[in-house]
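Forwarding the complex inputs:
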Amino acid sequence: MGFGFELLKADGKARRGRISTLHGTVETPVFMPVATLGAVKTMTPHELEELGARIILGNTYHLYLRPGHEQIAATGGLHGFMRWKGPVLTDSGGFQVFSLGHLRKITEEGVRFQSHIDGSYHFISPEKAIEIQEALGADIIMAFDECTPYPATREYATASMELTERWAARCREAHRREGQALFGIVQGGMYKDLRERSLEGLVKIGFHGYALGGVSVGEPKEEMEAIVSHCAPLMPDDRARYLMGVGTPEDIVESVAAGMDMFDCVMPTRTARHGTLFTSEGRLIIKNARFQDDERPIEEGCECYTCRHYSRAYLKHLFRAGELLALRLNTIHNLHYYMVLMASIRQAIEEGRFDRFRNEFYYKRGRVLDTPAT
Amino acid sequence: MGFGFELLKADGKARRGRISTLHGTVETPVFMPVATLGAVKTMTPHELEELGARIILGNTYHLYLRPGHEQIAATGGLHGFMRWKGPVLTDSGGFQVFSLGHLRKITEEGVRFQSHIDGSYHFISPEKAIEIQEALGADIIMAFDECTPYPATREYATASMELTERWAARCREAHRREGQALFGIVQGGMYKDLRERSLEGLVKIGFHGYALGGVSVGEPKEEMEAIVSHCAPLMPDDRARYLMGVGTPEDIVESVAAGMDMFDCVMPTRTARHGTLFTSEGRLIIKNARFQDDERPIEEGCECYTCRHYSRAYLKHLFRAGELLALRLNTIHNLHYYMVLMASIRQAIEEGRFDRFRNEFYYKRGRVLDTPAT
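Prediction (whole assembly, two chains):
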């Protein structure tokens, strides 16, 4: 009862798995749309469900500040508050707090910071991060970590990773809520040996799942891929592996190839609001003048609501005119693209042809792979 | 075949009617949501249909500038462009052009103006307004009028009304499109005799329907009600009567009582985006701190999607956080309120109890009518 992970099949290093939670099961590899403030921007929970989203992510930092975890707890937790019936994952708030730069101060005890909204002072310790996340009531919560910035010296990355490990132990100790899974976060910057030490330390403490943090923080794509492909196979086979804050469709395909199971990113939703749309042949900038009279959908054959009903010409018009409907229709398409991508990945692994899938994925983009699947 | 209006029943001066168009029938009294730029802000056509909207309004001025009537014509007109299957009405662009103030110059021939978007020069004559509206392909189009400002001297209002009449004749002469109805617009400012002269002149020219323009342009509510209640009964019985740009729920109830059939206004959609929500007891400002822990829907018993799923506390949070979903959920509620109001009005007239309906409408708002129904 409660949380579980089952590895159903492996195809090379790629994994097909299943997460069980109190709010239902999730087939992996999975992409989690981001509901920063208790809503995936522009979308209702019912639309997310229709699109095939099965688990969404809430941001602890943002919800702690607005409307406050206590208010959310009083209304049945994040599930009740935002009317999402499926599983939810909350991050620990660490990433957002560290992004505050000069507005925060890190000590052994935790982080003191000022709200980006009103400048008010707050303090989050590992214990407090767990308290907030228990109140929010997600199915999966994250240990409070220091997200090591890029670039970081070996010295800084080491100290940071060790602090994250001590905090992880305190999170584990503080966590009480039944049926709620707690994941540990591997840090160590771009240093493979530090990553290994971090993972070993976390596994000793023991978590329901393990995440790679501190990637997609500004490093070159090659460095990210090197860390992910090095770390993923070392992570416990019988636990879900979560790559935090990643990423582009290409990043996801590569990380699945390396053995990761879970992903989250604002990429599909944020780029949609900026007018960039994903297709199997690459990205389409909808405001482009060449779509003026283009009666085709964003992508021929796409079965999303937007492509079934609207032309590029109309979408260009709406976007240029600043119509809010444009942001919705773009978001629907991009999330649909991600959901179909993940379903295709899962099917390919099930059928033992992930390598071929990966090659075709790049072929459609007019790009030939120069490295074999890991 | 084509356009028609049938008066089904009268209850005092209030009328229950039916408009027939090539894109379906519309039961009156009716409220038309405004799709300024080819979309009712935040909403899909399918959602509008679900809400009970049967006819929507497009703005000629805006669509002429962006994306241009020729492009819209090439994609099957406004119906095809925005994927709305039901009837559409377009205004003539007059109101928007006159709102440009120093950016426009009126002559006998028409109006020269600068785009509010890029400052480019344009000229719209009555003939051009018809050409644009024929291209947009609405089921009902409007004659090009000068919207008399408020306040206006008797001299100005007279000249303006006479110009509008000459333009109306030119519109009638220019109009060719089969199955498309052309409505004339009564002007004359706040001068009842000028309004009468305007109406007589238009009736002599002969239109498929008649509208009252130049109201809700800044005049006190009493002046508007005086003009509407004076003019409505004088308008031809066998033609639809359209009150342009009106209004609040109260305005609509009063104007139905006076004998008007059709209404349009940005009120429900715009106020929704500003966080003001309509209820049978009055307006609710959703950002108000007192809704912090309020688990009730916007209005108990309301069957809109928003009220069936979300609490005031959640809606307050979304709105304060600037979430786009807030604008959608608020818009759904307000449009639903207007659609239910119109359905209730139609039913009350059918059952010969509009007067009682009107009294109850005000009673719920804690306001006792000091004037009997007209």
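Chain B touches chain A at residues 37-39, 41-44, 66-67, 71, 74-75, 81-83, 292-293, 295, 305, 309-311, 313-314, 316-318, 320-321, 323-325, 327-329 (CB under 8 Å).
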